[in-house]
Amino acid sequence: MIPEIGHFALLLALVVACVQGSLPMLGAAWNRPSWMAVGQPAALAQMFCVLVSFLALTQAYVVSDFTVLNVVENSHSAKPMLYKVTGVWGNHEGSLLLWVLILTVFGAAVAAFGANLPPTLKARVLSVQAWISIGFLSFCIFTSNPFERVFPPPPDGSDLNPLLQDPGLAFHPPMLYLGYVGFSIAFSFAVAALIEGRVDAAWARWVRPWTLAAWSFLTAGIALGSWWAYYELGWGGWWFWDPVENVSFMPWLLGTALLHSAVVVEKRDALKVWTILLAILTFSLSLLGTFIVRSGLLTSVHAFAVDPERGLYVLALLAIAIGGSLTLFAWRAPALKAGGLFAPISREGGLVLNNLLLATATATVLIGTLYPLFLEALSGERVSVGPPFFNLTFGPLMVPLVALMAVGPLLSWKRADLAGVLGRLKFAFLGSVIVTGAVWAFSYGGPVLAPLAMGLGAWLLLGTLSEWADRVKLFRAPLSESLSRARGLPRAAYGMSLAHAGLAICIFGIVGSTAWKVEEVLVMRPGDSVTVAGYDYRFEGVQGQEGPNYQANRARFMVTRDGQAVAVLEPEKRFYPVTDMPTTEAAIHTTGFADLYAVIGDPAPVSAEDGAKGRGWTVRIYYEPLVSWIWFGSLVMMLGGFLSLSDRRLRVGAPRRRVKAPALAQPAE
Amino acid sequence: MTRKRRRLYIVALGMLSLAVAAALVLTAFEDNLVFFYSPTDLKEKELPEGRLVRIGGLVEEESIQRGADNRVSFVVTDLSNSVPVTYQGILPDLFREGQGVVAQGSLGPDGVFVAREVLARHDENYMPPEVAEALRKSGEWRPAEESAAQ
After folding, report:
1. CA distance B40 to chain A (A)
2. Domain boundaries, chain A
3. CA gyration radius, chain A
4. What is the pTM of this model?
5. Using the beta-carbon criterion (under 8 Å), do A163 and B126 form an inter-chain contact?
6. What's the CA gap between A108 and A667, in Å, rounded?
7. Tell me: the pLDDT tens digits for B55-99?
8. ipTM
9. Is B13 within 8 Å of chain A by CB?
10. Is-cis flag, bond preceding A152, omega within 30?
């Protein structure tokens, strides 16, 4: 009964979305306020329907209702409760439902908090939002219905892929979707503005908080995914330039560009057409990210089983959304009036450069990701594009970007004095030279570029600090004045500093773990010892363990350094009988400056003579310097985003007017 | 500065960055495109020794042999041709006999494929498209049996 209610609610949501997609739009065109007013209640009703539907599916998972096909295929009665709930979105149908839920929540948030939007703009935004809903709801209902029943119901389910039974991955999809879908608001605003034919500073002020929220969530989502890959796959790597990773990274890159160009629209009324285009492209890439992997078009080492039947529907949806919005752009964009002027060397100029570099970097990632697809379509040859390609194309583009990031915030609007700005960065420059020299001396004989890359990270970090110190007049005014200035700085300024500093921390982590990682693969017998990067690992042996829905072999390593105990590492190799799948659980000890990482493999002969007797275990030990800084840096970036979001000037897009209640929820929720 | 001049600067900068990106992409493509060969392709097309390629097919039943120092050898087959493969390292969790596999490496002088990487799958039911394609080409693709076997 409850699954039928869920199914019915989903159909109802589609009907509501159709109403919401037509009446307000027509009302705005024909100037009928009563039609436009339909948008707000419709958006709320739509969200309510999808929420009911989502809860119905969750209920089926929680009580293990094996009359529902989706539950049978992806759940099992012995699964821990956490994974029963997160299993709702651990599969194609459920994750699509989650996508739609988040989409409608964002739509409802615009309806609820957009009280001071001009009525025609609000009506159009809600209608465009409903068009996206229609596409997704019909995809969900007609090709991937999560409520399909099965008769006779099997006694038990076939369980969720054990790799997904993990807290890191459990919350990765919702975060990622909050990011992807958040960009839909920027998209809807862009399309609405194109239809309306007007873009002004107020428009940018409404768009920016949504973009900022989406960007922060996407940052968290990508970081969670990479963290999961790091500890769950047992390869010691955290980024593989795999298509699945790339498609989540591209919207992030372009979303970052959008975030910055929206500032120019807001402050200087320039770059309007470009910002509109960015908003459209960012969401297009999000759609690509949601779908291209699920449709089975791309081969990925992360790939999950897919149904090729859905591919066509997905392609049609992508073609309509991307093609339609770009056509609208080509038709309407020339009508937008160009805004303020600026000199090449100015804050605007810096942001233009930022946008160019980010867009170019996105293009290279896109080429590398889609090239195999095109080549196969054209010549039938199958190729793959590996990490070296991305390192060689993406890497060089990031160097000028990061170098500029320290300079940009110091430039003034309209026209800046470059010599003066560089003068204010002399301490940062000096500091980064010292860091480069120190790292070079410390790691003599290691990779040549690594010290320079660390120096670049230091340049960004110190440059960001200098900018802040400059604003509060640190050491140039009495401390009390600096303090009161620091308190007076808007949160958006702190947000920017935090986000930039977060990236610098990330860079340290990326460089450290790439350049100085030590990897040791060997066969060990209980009692054997091995030294990796100065740490001694003593292998104590392997014990059998029983988990709730798996069996495990748990190994034990005593880690010492110069005779001092450091850690006990207990990696596991698990076996899930229901899905007949083994998984690797790495053991990780972090010192803050490096991770000690151990993985246990299969039993293996120690040497050729031993044969089947005297067996040891395959063991992998990694020493990963600074790797945890990557995720710490991402966290700092995300916090920067949210801090900036909480700035009063941005909250709920109230232009110049004070928002009365600070208790007003942030738009992202 | 006129609006036109400014736009010109921006367009020029855009072109410049695109040109740089294009140059980077082209040079990187030259060395980093990895082509896919099925065991039949390996036999029919002359593959220069030492060139990095990907091969894919099924791991032949009872062909996995574990040696010392984590050396593993197995045979990859598309059911009409097969190629012996050696690999040193830990195999992915889902590597097993009778199932699809993709390996990246190069062909040695003795005709043995030396894998540098054996790619993992995350899903029991997932068949790499290249492998499915290779099996289909050799006329041995039986999707029904494939899903029944799982």
Report:
1. 14
2. 1-159, 166-413, 425-516+630-650, 518-626
3. 27
4. 0.89
5. no
6. 10
7. 888 888 888 888 777 788 899 888 888 899 999 877 877 787 877
8. 0.80
9. yes
10. yes
